[in-house]
Write a structure and sequence with these properties.
166 residues; disordered N terminus; 46% strand; twelve-stranded mixed sheet; 1 helix; mainly beta; 12 strands
Length: 166
């Protein structure tokens, strides 16, 4: 069920938001197992960085992709998404939970690296509603579903235009 929710969420993100390929509009960066990651930048449909809050203000999706890797952060807050720190520390069996995922396109992308109760992390966000911008930092550890190999995502930071409503 969790995988279906993640796939549906990513499909909504893909279909409903404007992809930001312009580096002057923001950035989405991190360190993955010691190597630099930067999303977007290339003028290509396959690379982007985006931030979307649902129209009900309960779900935030941050996504950054380059040609070989993708980092997706999903936060659900029944009281509404606000400027604060959220944690990735719930089991993958919980339907509406905070999730961090890393996909390495050199591996089987149908089974990415995912946070869970044992592989945790955090996301701190600042929302500038009048200017429709979001910025913050993140880090998490995630487990590859097929081999139990782990990935360490550190030094994550972003500043992006914010799309509200999907």
């Amino acid at each position: 069920m969790k995988k279906i929710f993640s796939v549906a969420t990513l499909a909504l993100l893909f279909l409903s938001c404007k992809k930001n390929n312009n580096p002057s509009d923001g950035y989405f960066t991190a360190t993955i197992n010691g190597s630099s990651f930067r999303a977007g930048g290339a003028q290509s449909f396959t690379t982007y960085q985006s931030a979307v809050i649902s129209s009900a203000n309960h779900l935030l999706i941050l996504d950054g992709k380059n040609d070989n890797q993708d980092i997706s952060l999903e936060v659900y807050d029944s009281s509404g998404i606000n400027s604060k720190t959220y944690y990735f520390n719930t089991p993958n069996t919980v339907l509406y939970s905070n999730n961090a995922e890393y996909l390495d396109y050199n591996k089987d992308i149908s089974h990415g690296y995912r946070s869970d109760a044992a592989h945790v992390g955090m996301l701190t966000i600042r929302i500038d509603t009048p200017n429709r911008r979001i910025s913050g930092t993140f880090s998490f550890q995630a487990k590859f579903e097929l081999t139990n190999e782990t990935a360490d995502i550190t030094n994550g930071s972003f500043s992006l235009p914010l799309t509200i409503g999907m």
